[in-house]
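Troubleshooting log. The previous structure file for this entry was overwritten by mistake, so regenerating from the original sequence record. Sequence copied from the archived sheet and checked twice against the printout by T.R.
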Amino acid sequence: MVDLYYIEDDLNIALAVKKYLESKNFHVTICATLAAAKQKIRDKVPTCILLDWNMPDGRGDSLCQWIRGNWKELPVIFLTVRSDSSDIVSGFKNGADDYVVKPFEFEVLYSRILAVLRRTGNVAEQYLSCDGIMIDKDRHSVFCHSEEISLSAAEYQLLLYLMQNKGRTVTRAGILEQVWDVNGSYVNDNTLTVTMKRLRDKLSKPTCLKTIRSVGYRMEDTI
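Regenerated output below.
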């Protein structure tokens, strides 16, 4: 399923587009402000973004520039009224992947989204997120509330395994096997305890990383 964020302050338009795209097996989240969109993207990177040019708290190109500074490959499609189309062309040249002029036919919008996704692929698969923590798997980078965090190889692999199993409890034995033993590094249980403490400290003791007493750990969204 394509996870799409639609940044649009006209609720009637937003709901109509949402209804149509969800009939095409999209999951659509509506954001009525740029600020709300930023928070949503920080929490979870979508597959694609539809972005209205004129928003109550600014212009869409400002959000597009912010996205490009953090997730260069994330597809962005501008939506605009015809009177703003010259500005949109400029915005398109500076980061957007495509633009569609209002009013538009749903089928046209759908085909343009599919065309962009064929070119870009599912960029969202590159990222794992939980609350304000995000992993960029391609770059082996970790961010906590948009700040890049430096982790050791063991800390990164531990966080990656937890994020890949988000919402599920993983046992200490399973972590030792998957994070260390798979690389031929046979370590004792205390190594996991120490590595987990260091990881938690670097991530400012996140509430989404839970200890399940006598079993193991679980990462789950709390916001």
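Residues 43 and 131 are 5 Å apart (CA to CA). Archived copy saved in two places this time.
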